[in-house]
Amino acid sequence: MNIFRLAGDMTHLLSIIVLLLKIYATKSCSGISLKTQELYALVFLARYLDLFTDFISVYNTIMKVVFIASSLAIVWCMRLHPLVKRSYDKELDTFRHYFLIGGTFVLALVLNEKFTLQEILWAFSIYLEAVAILPQLVLLQRSGNVDNLTGQYVFFLGAYRAFYILNWIYRYLTEPRFTRWIACVSGIVQTGIYADFFYYYFISWKNNSKLKLPA
Amino acid sequence: AQKEQEKDEL
């Protein structure tokens, strides 16, 4: 475990806490894409299959349980909670995310470390995570104004994968046989997708103005 | 044979 990876996991955890806070405190999920939340729940379920078979460390196990539980809780909240679900922007959240699931699954069948179910699902979860934010970014573009908590949520989510890239560089330099091309390339693509959001987020932070995304 | 990279990352 190195500082970059710990920082990455903590910002990832922070993004989920910010989102839960926003939904719980305001009892509203306006501006949040349910499709992105469903994709993240799928990412964690597909990736953490080894939760009960391979024990890595207490930290690893606890974080996996937290990520699976929180992502399912958010999806449950947005779909079933009587108060929250009313504020869901159903007509704005129209990204066809089933194409993302299909496309990344096919890619995982072709590009994986080993043609076993667990490895294919792991690669699938890595590719899906890279594109899972797209429905959310499209929703933000459509709704134009970004409320602070949602903006912070997306910002921390982007920052976490950026820290992971530093972690992979560090591990590549310090561990003789560390190669993780699938996660690395996919992680770079994922961080790249946030680039434009980061740009507007930084501009709004510098001008101390409201975050506006060009429609 | 190269031991499979253990998936120790989240």
UniProtKB/TrEMBL annotation, chain A:
Q: How does it sit in the membrane?
A: Multi-pass membrane protein
Keywords from UniProt, A to Z, are: Endoplasmic reticulum, ER-Golgi transport, Membrane, Protein transport, Receptor, Transmembrane, Transmembrane helix, Transport
- Where are the bilayer-spanning segments? 55-77, 98-115, 121-141, 153-173, 179-202
Q: Which GO terms describe its cellular component?
A: endoplasmic reticulum membrane
Q: Which GO terms describe its molecular function?
A: ER retention sequence binding
Subcellular location, principal: endoplasmic reticulum
- Highest taxon listed in the record's lineage: Eukaryota
Instruction: Note whether Transmembrane occurs among the keywords.
Output: yes
A Pfam family annotated for this UniProt entry: ER_lumen_recept
Localization recorded for this chain is:
Endoplasmic reticulum membrane
Biological process annotations from GO: protein retention in ER lumen; protein transport; vesicle-mediated transport
Listed InterPro entries: ER_ret_rcpt (IPR000133)
Family, according to the entry, reads as follows: Belongs to the ERD2 family.
The record's listing under PANTHER family reads: ER LUMEN PROTEIN RETAINING RECEPTOR
Q: What's this protein's name?
A: ER lumen protein-retaining receptor
The root-end lineage is: Eukaryota, Viridiplantae, Streptophyta, Embryophyta, Tracheophyta
